[in-house]
């Protein structure tokens, strides 16, 4: 916390001010990033809080340099600082974002994705909830805006509403506020595990944050909106995402608990998934000529289980997944 002083007649009144840095990682999506920054520029700044933004481009050759960076920020009131991380990989970019945020001596750091737009009261609600519930991490919901409807067989991973202040043990990085103590060298000094280059690095980070004793809460009305391009809801991409999530989830357990313990858990689980997945796929395929929609649901349910089962085995072997090599949106 910092103190600023103001004279008021006979008495000197001083106010506690704080710095809050919003970190955004981006790669080859300049239009989405500009929309994200424009939404952040419309934020209602919490009282006695200085807001700024750090943007980390995760690409060998950065797009936002010189004139392009000036063009993107010239219409914004909030200060924006650009950084570059040439090593491709989400945990590399996120760690660079944390280091960049720390350069500005923050009290709080917020994380949002480049394909998202924040509601004007987003930061205000996250910060107020942390103060109300004495929490160091606040995670909010994402409202997804689909360019094209997802297939009827796809079950969207929506979080159920929970009362604000509900304690949580893990969180993603697409809508989260963290106390800088968690990442400062004189605090917990936590960073994203750079071995998790193909997913689950955010879940892992916040599981370790919780294990270190930080209180984490849910804030049910601190919304951001995420644009879902049509390319992300093709059958190939949806199945690839399921495979990636299962791969990274298993590899995470390998890193934390060892390959032997992970194998005891995932080999039986992946075997069940693949056996039942194969049966469901076959039955669904046979059912489709007679009841197309029901048959397709069963068919793709089976394929998803096959993707999860094979992904678990892939993760046990430590084999990387290439889901994030493809960039959706622009």
From TrEMBL:
<feature type="domain" description="Glycosyltransferase 2-like">
    <location>
        <begin position="22"/>
        <end position="175"/>
    </location>
</feature>
<dbReference type="GO" id="GO:0016740">
    <property type="term" value="F:transferase activity"/>
</dbReference>
<keyword id="KW-0808">Transferase</keyword>
<dbReference type="InterPro" id="IPR029044">
    <property type="entry name" value="Nucleotide-diphossugar_trans"/>
</dbReference>
<dbReference type="Pfam" id="PF00535">
    <property type="entry name" value="Glycos_transf_2"/>
</dbReference>
<dbReference type="InterPro" id="IPR050834">
    <property type="entry name" value="Glycosyltransf_2"/>
</dbReference>
<dbReference type="InterPro" id="IPR001173">
    <property type="entry name" value="Glyco_trans_2-like"/>
</dbReference>
<protein>
    <submittedName>
        <fullName>Mycofactocin system glycosyltransferase</fullName>
    </submittedName>
</protein>
């Amino acid at each position: 916390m910092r103190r600023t002083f103001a004279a008021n007649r006979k008495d000197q009144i001083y106010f506690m001010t704080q710095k809050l840095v919003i970190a955004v990682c981006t790669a080859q999506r300049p239009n989405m990033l500009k929309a994200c920054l424009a939404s952040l520029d419309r934020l209602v700044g919490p009282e006695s809080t200085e807001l700024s933004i750090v943007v980390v481009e995760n690409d060998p050759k950065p797009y936002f340099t010189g004139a392009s960076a000036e063009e993107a920020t010239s219409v914004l009131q909030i200060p924006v600082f650009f950084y570059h991380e040439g090593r491709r990989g989400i945990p590399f970019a996120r760690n660079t974002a944390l280091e960049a945020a720390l350069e500005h001596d923050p009290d709080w750091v917020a994380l949002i994705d480049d394909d998202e737009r924040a509601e004007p009261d987003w930061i205000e609600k996250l910060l107020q909830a942390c103060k109300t519930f004495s929490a160091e991490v606040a995670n909010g919901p994402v409202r997804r805006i689909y360019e094209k409807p997802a297939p009827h067989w796809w079950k969207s991973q929506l979080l159920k509403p929970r009362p604000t202040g509900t304690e949580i043990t893990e969180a993603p990085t697409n809508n989260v506020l963290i106390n800088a103590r968690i990442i400062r060298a004189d605090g917990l000094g936590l960073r994203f595990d750079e071995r998790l280059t193909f997913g689950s690095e955010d879940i892992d980070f916040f599981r370790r944050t919780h294990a270190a004793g930080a209180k984490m809460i849910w804030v049910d009305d601190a919304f951001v909106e995420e644009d879902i391009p049509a390319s992300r809801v093709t059958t190939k991409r949806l199945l690839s995402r399921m495979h990636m999530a299962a791969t990274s989830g298993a590899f995470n357990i390998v890193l934390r608990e060892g390959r032997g313990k992970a194998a005891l858990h995932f080999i039986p689980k992946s075997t069940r998934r693949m056996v039942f997945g194969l049966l469901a796929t076959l039955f669904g395929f046979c059912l489709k000529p007679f009841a197309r929609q029901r048959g397709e649901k069963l068919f793709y349910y089976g394929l998803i289980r096959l993707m999860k089962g094979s992904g678990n085995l892939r993760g046990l072997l430590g084999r990387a997944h290439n889901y994030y090599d493809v960039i959706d949106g622009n």
